[in-house]
# Entry
Amino acid sequence: ETGVTQTPRHLVMGMTNKKSLKCEQHLGHNAMYWYKQSAKKPLELMFVYSLEERVENNSVPSRFSPECPNSSHLFLHLHTLQPEDSALYLCASSQEGAGVLGNEQFFGPGTRLTVL
Amino acid sequence: TQLLEQSPQFLSIQEGENLTVYCNSSSVFSSLQWYRQEPGEGPVLLVTVVTGGEVKKLKRLTFQFGDARKDSSLHITAAQPGDTGLYLCAGGWGNNRLAFGKGNQVVVIP
# Structure
């Protein structure tokens, strides 16, 4: 596997379900991100992990719970979601401390989430 | 909050034509990235520009960073159907954070 992988690619869940999204990066990076992409909106940054510590949480509802067990893996645990949470969830990674090149983020293919 | 406005939002052209799309902001960025995203996939990084006035070429794609590092343009020469996609610009700021525009949807008709 190369780059950034995400599973599952598609997920349909009811509002009472609990599910998890998984992301794995094979680039040796030290920072990982969760973004939400909705139609006709800019990508919204949800969480940032740097060296496995959560350094940013952009007012995301508690029904989204991230986990970063090591620098290569990132999870997003979902529970009691709402229909408006339906979106493409993207994971990205980058190398912090690399100057402006640290701004280069590499994305996975995303998980298309539908909440019924 | 850093805001990036991309224009036009949607552009449809015939194969072989040229096109230019724009990314504008009132904020100064330390760098600017362009990504291309195809349906059902994540954004793929095309280029990073860092210096004001910088021009980079990637085959038929030419990227320019504005002198004041607030805006950027992407020009495609002799567009091909494979150029179809959503082009996203992202400005770098703070501690390796990116602010994204809504994108330029480009459709190249064979």
